[in-house]
Known about the structure:
Layout: H1 3-14, H2 40-49, H3 52-56, H4 75-92, H5 97-106, H6 115-125, H7 132-143, H8 154-161, H9 172-195, H10 206-212, H11 216-231, H12 241-259, H13 268-284, H14 291-298, H15 303-312, H16 316-327
Helix pairs in contact: 2-5, 4-5, 4-9, 4-11, 5-8, 5-9, 6-13, 7-8, 8-9, 9-11, 9-12, 10-12, 13-15, 13-16, 14-15
Amino acid sequence: MTIRETLxxxxxxxxxxxxxxxxxxxGRAKPEAECDIRPVFQRDRxxxxxxxxxxxxxxxxxxxxxxxxxxxxxxxxxxxxxxQNARTIAKALRLNEDLAEAIALGHDLGHTPFxxxxxxxxxxxxxxxxxxxxxxxxxxxxLEKEGEGLNLTWEVRDGIRNHQTSSMPETLExxxxxxxxxxxxxxxxxxxxxxxxxxxxxxxxxxxxEVIGYTPRERLNAFIxxxxxxxxxxDDVRLSDDVERAMRDxxxxxxxxxxxxxxxxxxxDKAVSLVKxxxxxxxxxxxxxxxxxxxxxxxxxxxEQVVCDYISSMTDRYAIALYDELYVPKFxxx
Length: 334
């Protein structure tokens, strides 16, 4: 018996009857030999962790564009915080921690430069629309490894695709990540807003604070404990009604005070304009795309999609440098 098979049997003894067992995975789009050490979801986690798209997250905006300070979140630190929340909840509920971690690490791989500003820009100019969750799936299925993709399991891809509020994943581990994402950005966006001087802890409405606490630490603790207590022994992952309502109210408070705040978003219009300009440029100068993206187009992928693939793969710094190269006049000597 291999180490992997031993670990799979241990899952059947330890995990909840509602957990997703590694041995019961629906498998990969392209069949391949099993690893003799790692179960499938652990293997997926490792593939995501070593991908180029994952490394690029360190230079992609979370909420604050180009903040002056070393302690503001990036898309990478957000992803790591989502992963930590998901692992904590999954372990407490005896769900498959490897699956939850793989989904969490991969959920934002297709995100644009400049965060949701870049996503909104591409959604407005691309006739197919643009959603970062769908792009994240495209990233792992096609764009990674020069067109080979990561060949992840169905369960991981399902969790990545359905981590947003508007959809629901098939597995409980996917539901854990879906909530962990909300918990993470509610926690750290408030923390960053306080650091930036946009909010004070005392600004949180009393009716919210009475339910989930008045500090980021208190709220994080309240969300995770409530989810574990409410979901334990059931075939669902959810918050209690009062805490769910408080989360929605806090999210609306953040939209009103932070996400649409003119101080926090002063540079956002510039980012939107930059992304749209790059899109229009490469729609008319497709021959200047890097070789891999040119080959995607030659292989039958729509030009609009290929241009979105290229732009969404950029980091903030790369997008700015490319814009500068294409549009800012240079000094020259005759």
